[in-house]
Amino acid sequence: MKTIVCEEPYKFALRDVPMPERGEGEALLRIKRTGICGTDLHAYRGNQPFFTYPRVLGHELSGEIVDIESGGAALREDDEVVIMPYLECGRCAACRKGRTNCCAALSLIGIHQDGGMAEYISMPVSHLIPAPGLKLEQMAIVECLSIGAHSVRRAQVQPGQTVLVIGAGPIGMGAMQFARIAGGRVIAMDVNDQRLAYCKNVLRVDECINANGDAKGQIEELTDGEYPDVVMEATGNPKSMMNAFQFVAHAGTYVMVSIVKADITFEDPEFHKREVTLLSSRNATREDLENVIKAMQRGEVETDSFITHRVGFDDMIDTFDSWLDPDSGVIKAVVEL
C-alpha cells in the first residue's frame, strides 16, 4: 500500500509498504479522509515535542471498515467511522481515573507511532466511533474539534462567563465554538484580521481583539476592568502563553491548550494575588469525541467553511509547504483518498 513518510524535517517521501495485519480486537480500515493538524505542521518543521523521525503523520482520520471480527459487534464491514487516535494503556493512574487522554504510556498515532497518512490502518475496535449522518470530511475533523471541546470541559465553562480564547487556529476555533455552546460570552484574540472576521461572522463569537494592538486595554474595556473568567491559550507561542497570565480575572481560570518545547514562566505575586486556577489540557477522551459528534449532528458546530483546502493523497507532498504560508488562508486542510 502507499504511505507518506516524514523522513526528517521538511522532507516527505512516498513509500510502498506492506499492508497492516489486523490484530485481535482490531479492525482493518481503508483511510478515507485525513485532516492536517497544527501538530503535523510542527512535526514537519521539526519543533513538535514527543516526536521522532521517520514518522507517518496523520491522526485526524475517518475510514471505512474492510475487515473486522464477526460475532455480535456493533460495527460491521463497510461501516464508516471516526478513528480515535489515542492508544492508552488502561492500567496507569490516569487511565484508572478515566483520564485516558493523559495516560502515562500514551501512544498517539502519527506522533509516537505511525499514523494514518496511508491507504490502510489497523486500529482497536474500541477506538472506532460511528457518526451517522456526518460526511467523511466532517468525521475527519471530529478529533480536532474534540481538543477544543475537552479544554472547555476542563475549564468547566458556565453560562454567562466571559471566555477569552487566544489563537484563532483550528484548535482555538473549536474551543470558541464549544465555549459558546456552554453559554459563555466568547472573545477571540489573534493577529490575523481575516481569521478574526471569520470568528465573528461565522463562528458567532461576541467580540474580537487583534493582539497587535492594545490587547490588555481592549480586554479591560470589554470586561469593565474585571478581565475574563476563563482564558484559553491556543497559539503554540511561548511569549503569548506567558503574556496571557495578565488577562485572567481574580479567581479566574487559565487553560493552556498549547504545548511547546519551551519553559513557561510567570510573575508569582500576580498569580497568587488573583488565586488563578492553572490547567493544562491534553488531547481528548472518547466522551469528548462523542460529544462533538452529537453537536455536529445537531448542527451546532460549523464544519463546511471550516474545511478550506482539499487535496488528493498523491498531491499532498507537493501541496503541504503551501499550508505553512499564512497568506494561503488555510484553516483546515483535508487529504482525500
Keywords:
337 residues, alpha/beta, seven-stranded mixed sheet, six-stranded parallel sheet, 11 helices, 26% helix, globular
Percent of sequence in beta strands: 25-35%
Oligomer state of the chains in this structure: single chain
Cα-based radius of gyration, to the nearest Å: 20 Å
Count helical runs: 11
The largest pleated sheet is described as: 7 strands, mixed
Structural class: alpha/beta
Write the layout of secondary structure elements.
Layout: E1 2-8, E2 11-16, E3 26-36, H1 38-45, E4 60-68, E5 80-83, E6 86-87, H2 93-96, E7 107-108, E8 120-124, E9 128-130, H3 136-139, H4 142-155, E10 162-166, H5 170-181, E11 185-190, H6 193-201, E12 207-210, H7 215-222, E13 230-233, H8 238-243, E14 253-256, H9 268-274, E15 277-280, H10 286-297, E16 307-312, H11 316-320, E17 332-336
Parallel strand pairs: 10-11, 10-13, 11-12, 13-14, 14-15, 16-17
Antiparallel strand pairs: 1-2, 3-4, 3-8, 3-17, 4-5, 5-9, 6-7
Helix pairs in contact: 4-5, 4-10
